[in-house]
Amino acid sequence: MENRPDDWEAFARKHIEGVGTLNLEEKEIDDDGIKNLFQLELMAEITRLELGNNKITDEGVKIICDSPHLHKVRTLNLKSNDITPAGAKIIANCKDLMNLDQLILKFNKVGEEGAKALAESEYLGQLSTLDLFRNRIGDEGAKAIKTSKNFSRLNRLRLD
């Protein structure tokens, strides 16, 4: 199981691709792993964070959003984790995501309430891509996203 490395810094450096991309997709990272990762200084240099297909819950999302190392992230991919409306609200209220360009949350459990929170976020206005495919956001959640004045820059939107 790769989410229990002895040396998290070495583990993270091994998965850095190019300049600023940390690709930890399908590494069985859980919330404890997120806690270990986001204590690392090197996270301050990451611009693209690929965390899809792991075991991250709302608690892990909170750890990410509370991190002092998030300000450079432009792409946040959390597809296929265990994120609920509570996690979507945490993302929506995260000031350090003000420069986020792409948010990928497909195959989670964001729901209508989470979609509405994202739509109302004053911090996600720079998004050009939002992927909420298979999150059971329903008609009201879809309407909130599509009519959000905060998402004026969106040019790629994927809903249920």
Walk me through what this model shows.
The protein has 160 residues and is α/β, with parallel strands linked by helices. The chain has one domain (8-158): Leucine-rich repeat, LRR (right-handed beta-alpha superhelix), CATH 3.80.10. It contains six helices and seven strands; from the N terminus they run H-E-E-H-E-H-E-H-E-H-E-H-E. The chain has helices spanning 8-14, 31-37, 58-66, 85-92, 111-120, 138-147, and strands spanning 16-17, 21-23, 48-50, 75-77, 102-104, 129-131, 156-158. Strand 5 (102-104), helix 5 and strand 6 (129-131) form a beta-alpha-beta unit. Helix 4 packs parallel to helix 5 and helix 5 runs parallel beside helix 6 (138-147). The longest helix is centred in the last third of the chain and has 10 residues, at 111-120. The N and C termini lie far apart (32 Å). 41% of the residues are buried. The model has no long low-confidence stretch (mean pLDDT 95).
Number of domains: 1
Question: How far apart lie the N and C ends?
Answer: 32 Å
CATH class: Alpha Beta
Largest beta sheet: what is the strand line-up? 1-2-3-4-5-6-7
Percent of residues in β-strands: 5-15%
CATH architecture label name: Alpha-Beta Horseshoe
Main beta sheet: 7 strands, mixed
Roughly how much helix do the residues carry, as a percent range? 25-40%
Helix-and-strand structural type: alpha/beta
- What is the mean pLDDT? 95
Q: Radius of gyration, rounded?
A: 15 Å
SSE map:
Layout: H1 8-14, E1 16-17, E2 21-23, H2 31-37, E3 48-50, H3 58-66, E4 75-77, H4 85-92, E5 102-104, H5 111-120, E6 129-131, H6 138-147, E7 156-158
Parallel strand pairs: 2-3, 3-4, 4-5, 5-6, 6-7
Antiparallel strand pairs: 1-2
Helix pairs in contact: 2-3, 3-4, 4-5, 5-6
